[in-house]
Predict the structure.
Amino acid sequence: ACSVLGFIDEEDSTLIFPQARGARADSAPRKVIRDRLLTAGEVRALLSACDMEESPSAPRDALMISLAFHGGLKTVDLINLTLDSLIFDDKKSTVNIRFKAPGAKRARKIPLQNADLIALEDWLEVRSRKPGALFCPVFGRSRTVEVKRLSAAAMRTVCDERAQQAGVLAFSPNDLARSGM
């Protein structure tokens, strides 16, 4: 925190915190602010970075970022979502996501916004409508989707890649959940 605020220069801050095993001495340390809140502008930049990319994982990432920020879903909640969590209401023409947090007595419903619906439709087109986890990994150059749960480490990697593309400081998936609520 002192380094970020400018009380300690970069060279001294790298001496305070030892490098991880296997890290190269010439590599620059990654600046991570722990437990930070993202602004709405940063989230818009992340979502637009997803929109500009033409990869199969872009709608998945946009949907994850939006659900974490607007719905307050943490990493565990996002990982545990399945296709059965989606509730289509034909009478009201709405889509809700129903999930039950670990230890909670009741399930919570989160209505999807228009941008979320577009990302969901695009992601389901890539993912297919097989039962299973909603957020799945995309593999290799062929960009094939395997219907299995995305790991928490993979979600962290997605956040790091999207932050770099959007020019936003690094953040954790749970920082998004804290920022939106």
Summary: The beta strands are 86-89, 94-99, 108-111, 138-139, 144-145.
